[in-house]
Amino acid sequence: MIYFSHRGANTFCVQNTVPAFALAHTQGARKFELDIHLLKDGRLAVHHDYSLLSTAGKDVLLADLTYEELKKIPLQNPFGAEDVFVPLLEEILPVVSPGLELLNIEIKNDDNRYPGIEKAVLAMLENQPHLLQKILFSSFDYTTLTRLRALAPQARIGLLTRAFDVNQALALRAESVHINQTRFTSEIPQICHANNLRVYLYTVNDVAAAAQLAQNGADGIFTDKIHLFL
Length: 230
Known about the structure:
By secondary structure, the protein is of the alpha/beta class. The protein has a single domain (about 1-35, about 90-230), classed as Alpha-Beta Barrel (TIM Barrel). It has 10 helices and 11 strands. The protein has an 8-stranded parallel barrel, surrounded by 4 helices. Strands 4-5 form a two-stranded antiparallel sheet. Helix 1 (about 20-25) packs parallel to helix 4 (about 90-95). The longest helix is centred in the middle third of the chain and has 10 residues, at about 140-150. The termini are close together. The mean pLDDT is about 100.
């Protein structure tokens, strides 16, 4: 069983921020998960939602902001008085790189909201082939993954899905299937393992539950509480 730090140590710090990933790394995490969006100026921001409404109280889309505009908007911080901001992917990579084993980059791109995001992330990583080897791309938007596969035959892909279909994973030449733990069934690991696919479940924060899922065939989990598992 492997453990991904889901959006960093987000029970101690604001999720998907530099402090969250720095703390998770200090806690021992070497496998991470984060979400990316394409800003108005073509840069890649690390954030979960498409807007800043739930995290900064600003009803504005990331797609409508440049990085210069974004870095002036502090996120709500229930953990302390310090200002924290939505970071760029290029700011997170140096934080998680020391000893990195695997980084799951979830590409937020429902209905192709960000045309060209696949090219943007690959272009950013093209001069870091050692790092690209440790990145596992996923997305709920299947066509995003098909475009990524066409652009980068060597890329590592995980099928992130709400409705398990092994044929989709095989068509992508994926290495893993990512699915909510509530949709996990005994058939999923049987089918996946028969096709050399791993099964990663989100989001699991209970040690006993994780142990049971491992016994039932899960290969890894995404957790907000990485400190409990390391």
